[in-house]
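Human: I would love a firmer grasp of how sequence relates to backbone shape in proteins. Take your time, and here it is.
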Amino acid sequence: MSLRVNDLCHLARRIRLELNLLIQRILGIDLMKKFLKWMLALLGVVVVLLLVATFVLPMVVDPNDYKEEISAAVSKKTGRELTIDGDIKWSVFPSIGLELSDVTLGNPEEFDGQPMLDIGEAGISVKFLPLLKKEVQVGEVSMNDVSVYLSRKADGKNNWEDLTSARAGGDPASSGSGRGIESFQMSGIEITNARVTLDDVDQTTELKEFDFKATNIKLGRPFGLKGGFSINLPQSEIGGDVDFGGQVQSSADGKRFGINGLRLAFKGYKGSGDESLNLDATVKANADIDLSTNQAVLSDFVLQLYEVMVTGDLTVSSIRMNQKFTGQLKVAEFNPKAFMGSLGMEVPSTRNSEALTRMRADMRFAGTLDSADMQNLIVNFDESIFRGNLKIVNFDNPNLAFDFLIDRLNLDDYQSVLRTSTGSGAQESDLSVDAFRGFTGGGDFNVKELIAGGMTATDVRLKMSSDGSSVRFSPIVANFYGGQHEGDIKIDASGSRPLLTASHGLTSVQTEDLLNDLSGAARLQGTGDFFLEIKTDLTNSSSMVEALSGDIGMSVLNGAIVGIDVTETIAAVKTALGKQSELVSESGKDKKTEFAELTMSGVFDRGILSSDDFLMQSPLLMAIGEGEFNLVKESIDYVLKPVLLGDLGDSLGELSGVPIPVKLSGNLYDPKIRVDLVAAVAESQKEKINQKADEYIGKLLGEKEDSDTNSTEEADTEETDVASSLLKGLLGGKKKSDKKKDDDGGG
């Protein structure tokens, strides 16, 4: 009995356990069913919402009914008229959005003409479910057939400034009831076939076929962008295609943006037709824009234009308005002549073929859109090195302030020689007055060695100043061939041709070294003082000589005239008497006429120097002279009259105190030197000639009284014969063989 009771108790416990397990299973199935019901209900709500959005919303809500309200809101906010001529359509899959067409935004009242913005087609969508979590996930924003017209007047007013200032007045994302947006994401932006026109006073810029695409845009995460457009600058005849791209990085708050690996490539042209020129350039950089500090930084900047490469960095402050720039630029070495040829410019043919073939630069700079301040500027230009600072204010009418130190500058290397079209000769291109107009201000030049016109000056210091229509270099101070130079130069560009006025003074100059460098032949030795005051036309080298006028003067001490020995020439007179009427003396470097003092002054008139007060003195002789130096024809017509002062012996005693005319003629730099013996002898025998003449005249008068039958013609002939005989007698007579020689062209 007891066993049966135990068995029953055990069985009861088993049954209760199984019932509990069964109840738990039943309850679990019920909970799952409830969960499934909830999920199905939620899915149903979503489906219903999608159905409503897809079918009901477009039927119930017509966005076209709100066109007037939208236009009124835009007008109230911007003061501009917004017109939507096309239909507004819903887009509901995969995102809720709107599609618009034929939208225009007008200009401010003071800007007439075409609308500022014209959109052919546009669309934008927003994902629905992320909005429940306060996340904005915009689908793709697209615009097609867009025209943007921007205009800026001469007074600086433009047709977009009011929109940017209105935008700056508030931030819709941060205003309202406090239900802010916690994150922002956009699937992408795509702009196709856009056109942008900028009318900037008298310059028009056109961007055509503008395409732009950016994908996976999310604040705080990098995304890529790329695009391109065609550009046209009618006034400059420049056009071409531009491609760009890069990786954009932004901060989560949307106040800082950067572009890594920014690349911009331009493949274009300059000019039109057969004369068009390829114009290709690339720009690479990294950019960082911080809206909170209103600053932008461009680093690792590289500009490549043909063989010219510019590198550096740039910082822009006050990027919204009144931009200010600071940075550093380096220009790698390049060939300016080759670069000019690549740009289609006329390449000058310089006297030195190596001139204009090497250049590089390095500088720090600061500035604005209308000024530049270049500091620590170093320019290597061929064999010269320029160091200094340059400041330019107002690019349209520049005001300059500079100071430069130059180690060596040879201006003669850069003289341009352009061949004529016929090839018959060479001529220089004209120097225009525009080279000296349109700027004001000035500064200081310091040149350790300056070469110009074949002459060399050292430790040159000059100050330049300009008033916009003339340029002046004053004072000019330099060491010059053992002496000192002081000068003042003014170039008047107020007329049609550049006119030069110059005043120069030289003291204690070594004339031989100066003339050797100036003309290649030193005809004068000694220590001299010179002054020069001239006016001329700088248009070209011909006009400089032909228009030259002014005064010149010099005083040279303890020197010599090279190429002629006046004493030797006079000594040759004695042996030449009776043999020829003119003595030819060959010039030579080994011949010279020494003097204690030489003075002369002259007047320039249309390139011809006239002088009549030449005076040279030495213990043995004195010389006076007069004549002309024709710089236009590079010829000389000058007469020197040396006079022996001392007792030179029996052979020359007769010529002591007698002027011996020495004629210099022909080429200015290699003249012919001739002694006028007839004049010399006539002067030395003046007293005898007068005595003999009186005797013959008396004889002639007596014979005429005895013979009245002689005609006047016979008397004249006899007088001529007598005079001729007198001259022959003074010269010592000539033999018949000599006469025959003369008739044959000898002597």
About this structure: Residues 548-684 form one domain. The first helix runs from residue 2 to 60.
